[in-house]
Design brief:
By secondary structure, this protein is an alpha+beta fold. The protein is built from two helices and three strands; from the N terminus they run E-E-E-H-H. A hairpin with a 4-residue loop joins strand 2 and strand 3. It binds zinc ion (ZN) (2 copies). The site of one zinc ion has 8 residues, from loops.
């Protein structure tokens, strides 16, 4: 399985960051497994940008110019566990 990285802090499925308030490892608030990008629970300030599609350049950079951007429409639902469980 390919790794998914948070666009805010670049944590990933195997390297969670720790939420400063709950002291729990982060989870995905948004995740798109196909493009390998997401927004973790420590990066709520990135949610708006993500939802507005402002991270599309990163997706294209990570996946190459041939990446089918329309695949991003199939975002996984919020609350998908980030770590370990897929
Ligand atoms: Zn993050
Ligand atoms: Zn994180």
């Amino acid at each position: 399985m390919r790794l998914t990285h948070c666009v805010g802090c670049w944590c990933s499925d195997t390297r969670a960051c720790i939420d400063e308030t709950s002291h729990e490892p982060c989870h995905w608030l948004r995740v798109d497994r196909q493009s390998g990008t997401g927004v973790c629970s420590c990066c709520t300030d990135q949610l708006q940008a993500w939802d507005a599609g402002q991270w599309i350049w990163l997706v294209i950079w990570m996946n190459g110019p041939d990446f089918d951007v329309s695949a991003l429409a199939s975002k996984y639902p919020a609350g998908t566990p980030a770590l370990g469980v897929v």
